[in-house]
Specification:
This protein folds into 2 domains: 240 residues, 3-Layer(aba) Sandwich (Beta-lactamase), CATH 3.40.710; 94 residues, 2-Layer Sandwich (Alpha-Beta Plaits), CATH 3.30.70. The strands form 5 sheets. The chain has a 5-stranded antiparallel sheet with strand order 2-1-9-8-7, with helices on both faces. Strands 13-14-12-15 form a 4-stranded antiparallel sheet. It has a two-stranded antiparallel ribbon with strand order 3-4. It contains 13 helices and 15 strands. The N and C termini lie far apart (73 Å).
């Protein structure tokens, strides 16, 4: 009799686990208008899945919140424990007993998606990664992410760590809304650490017009994932995609969904102006590519934006020579701000300019 009961319990456990893991969506997506919160596209948006490295968006959200509250500072050193140093790649290969500054950790999480750094951050804030995961889940509930449970700071495989495409949209929206200055770091495409340059995993950001962040993710159980944001004609949309078979397939599908969403809002892809070269007997078309700008600061007061223009001009003439400087008034989530910009860049030169400024710790992102 006892043997039968044991078999029944085992069978019941198997059935529960089977159906629990069977609800995980191989593919899921959602695209939302940032300002109006209108859902422009969704597919399996509420089906639970593994967040992979999209988990690090929450890790970064908490870091930014602790900095704003004065609990952390950008120049704080964080100790690397044996546990942190042992984390599997992607990683910076931090050595046990060494330290890393908060500002470097932020770049490592955004661009390199470093798992060892995520653990360092968790231990700095909560003493252990397990306790930090509880804090992450609490933050998630406070943001309305009711279908999300975190179990670690990195997104490394854990069967109990689950979320949905809709919840990751909520998190992405909250980070952009609550930390607009810090969010600009997500537009950086590389960072340097101990003489080595690390490049972004977010390849779609390098080619999609108006893109400015946020984060890629991958583990075998989840497939290739992406939280993505783009702005065209001062209209931002956020797209989330889970379950890509490859990074390219994920990027192509989300690009299609994002383009469809912008079209639904009657916002076309920026048109490249063309002019006819009449000096040649053949009809040669030349493309005006120098329509990109770099944003080097966003401020509450115009005078501060003007000071930033003068500072960047004086300190980084290689980047700004022959470039027009302008102050642009913008509104973000009801907040009136002034952007310090340099214009007349090609797309390639704009990203290179931001890369150079990033090496010196300067905020910079590209606008079309």
């Amino acid at each position: 009799m006892k043997k039968i009961v044991t078999i029944n319990i085992a069978l019941s456990t198997f059935i529960v686990l089977f159906f629990s893991f069977n609800v995980l969506a191989k593919k899921a997506a959602i695209v939302v208008d940032f300002d109006t919160k209108e859902v422009l596209f969704e597919k399996n948006a509420d089906t639970k899945n593994y967040p992979a490295s999209l988990t690090k968006i929450m890790t970064l959200y908490i870091v930014f919140d602790y900095i704003e509250k004065g609990i952390l500072e950008y120049d704080d050193d964080m100790y690397v424990s044996e546990i942190a140093a042992s984390r599997s790649p992607s990683k910076l290969y931090l050595e046990q007993g060494s330290t890393i500054k908060v500002k470097d950790a932020i770049n490592a999480l955004i661009i390199k998606s470093a798992n060892d750094v995520a653990t360092v951050v968790s231990e700095k804030i909560s003493g252990s990664e397990r306790e930090f995961a509880k804090l992450m889940t609490k933050y998630a509930k406070d943001l309305g992410m009711d279908s999300t449970t975190f179990k670690n700071a990195s997104g490394l495989p854990n069967r109990a760590q689950l979320t949905t495409a809709r919840d990751i949209y909520k998190l992405s929206n909250a980070l952009i809304t609550n930390f607009p200055q810090e969010y600009k770091l997500f537009s950086n495409t590389s960072f340097e650490w101990k003489g080595k340059v690390y490049k972004t995993h977010n390849k779609l950001m390098l080619s999609y017009d108006g893109a400015d962040g946020i984060k890629t993710g991958y583990i075998k159980a989840s497939g290739f994932q992406l939280a993505f944001s783009a702005v065209r004609k001062n209209r931002r949309i956020i797209g989330i995609y889970f379950g890509g078979d490859t990074g390219k397939q994920r990027n192509d599908r989300l690009k299609f969904y994002m383009n469809s969403a912008f079209n639904k809002l009657n916002i076309e892809k920026p048109i490249i102006t063309k002019k006819l070269n009449t000096t040649d007997t053949k009809k040669q078309i030349t493309v005006d590519k120098n329509k990109y700008s770099i944003v080097v600061g966003t401020f509450k007061y115009r005078k501060n934006a003007e000071k930033q223009i003068k500072l960047i001009k004086s300190k980084y003439p290689v980047t700004t020579t022959n470039k027009k400087s302008i102050i642009v008034f913008i509104e973000v989530s009801g907040k009136k701000l002034y952007e310090s910009r340099f214009t007349d860049f090609s797309k390639k030169d704009a990203y290179q300019a931001c890369k150079r400024l990033a090496k010196y710790g300067r905020d910079c992102f590209v606008r079309l």
